[in-house]
Design brief:
This protein has 356 residues and is α/β, with parallel strands linked by helices. It is built from twelve helices and 13 strands. The strands form three sheets. Strands 1-2-3-7-8-9-11-10 form an eight-stranded mixed β-sheet. The protein has a three-stranded antiparallel β-sheet with strand order 4-6-5. A two-stranded antiparallel sheet has the order 12-13.
């Protein structure tokens, strides 16, 4: 019952005026679904922050196709009426369990590990999963790291559509401090832009992805040129093909609140949402750090700012760690969220206009 109870707490935060099903009428949710994130729009505003479920808090990178689709189906069956409409595969879907290496195609673009994502073995990437998620009435999202990787530099593919032909090693730049396999791409080079065009076209058009969570590009890892380049490409794809992909930045982690707000102002018009705090786990220290940041963004009137595709953009306070969750160390254990508790997390989220 812990999972059902905590899921209902999230629903209440997201839809205070909606009628809930009778107690006990919903089936027990699959493990991890209670980590969904929710948010009410501000009173009188039509602009609503994105809402959905992300796999990381309950599965870290170990989530597989069966688990992911089961959680998406539960959200579609029970939470879609309350605005939860996006189901997201987080971190390292391309990492091979047996070797730890990243699976890449002929252009050094990440591909799903078929051991965990068997439908990708057809060579269609995430398209079969996207089709199933869309058939549920939901949007489909994935997590991506910055740019390219050391695995790609080692393979050193030719960048798709680069003229003259350019190798990945020529466009690779700075590493991510907390994931040193992940490398920036030099977008001052035409080949760097071509690389981003090739991966974003693959995601938006071939795989029918609706939501991209781009990690190690914001906060203390800020790479504004790469954010701007990807935003322009996504705008171009939307204009040419009618595929409006939501673009989310991560992580948070800033020296001061003023710095957080300054970086938010720099990217708000380019994106759909941007993380403004460190990872939010089941502890009071993570929760307490939100209040000054939330007050600063409220004062700056950044929630609902004009963003990507002419839609509003929002500061993001990370996922709600509710229900049965794992730990930030990445092990496979699960435990019920008990420390910060939903009776603190949910009211905090429902008075703050941010994605959940």
């Amino acid at each position: 019952m812990h999972q059902v109870t905590m899921m209902l707490s999230v629903v209440l935060a997201a839809a205070a005026h909606a009628q809930l099903p009778a107690a006990g009428s919903a089936a027990r949710p699959p493990r991890g679904v209670a980590a969904a994130h929710a948010q009410l729009p501000a009173a009188g505003s039509a602009a609503r922050p994105p809402r959905g479920w992300n796999s990381y808090d309950s599965f870290t990178w170990f989530v597989n196709e069966t688990q992911f689709l089961a959680n998406c189906q539960y959200m579609a069956d029970h939470l879609l009426p309350f605005g939860y409409d996006t189901c997201v595969i987080d971190y390292l879907w391309y990492q091979q369990s047996a070797t730890g290496e990243w699976l890449l195609d002929e252009y050094c673009r990440p591909m799903p590990d078929p051991e965990r994502w068997p439908s990708s073995s057809t060579g269609m990437g995430f398209r079969p999963i996207a089709d199933k998620v869309h058939a549920m009435g939901l949007k489909f999202g994935i997590h991506i790291m910055r740019g390219t990787s050391t695995f790609a530099v080692s393979k050193d593919c030719v960048v798709k559509n680069s003229r003259p032909e350019t190798r990945i090693s020529a466009i690779a730049a700075d590493e991510c401090s907390w994931c040193t396999y992940s490398l920036s791409v030099n977008v001052s080079m035409d080949a760097g832009v071509r690389y981003y065009e090739s991966i974003l076209e693959q995601y938006a058009l071939e795989w029918q992805v609706d939501f991209l969570k781009n990690d190690c590009v914001f906060g203390s890892q800020f790479v504004p040129a790469e954010i701007a380049a990807q935003s322009r490409i996504l705008e171009s794809l939307a204009s040419a093909h009618g595929r409006e992909v939501l673009y989310s930045l991560s992580p948070g982690g800033h020296a001061t609140v003023d710095e957080i707000v300054s970086k938010g102002r720099a990217v708000a018009a380019l994106v759909s949402m941007y993380r403004v705090n460190n990872d939010d786990w089941d502890n009071w220290a993570a929760l307490e750090g939100h209040f000054d940041i939330a007050a600063a963004f409220a004062d700056a009137r950044m929630a609902g700012h004009h963003g990507l595709h002419g839609e509003p953009s929002f500061p993001d306070f990370d996922m709600l760690p509710l229900g049965f969750i794992t730990s930030p160390s990445g092990n496979r254990s699960h435990y019920p969220c008990v420390h910060a508790r939903p009776n603190a997390h949910c009211p905090k989220s429902s008075i703050r206009r941010a994605p959940r």
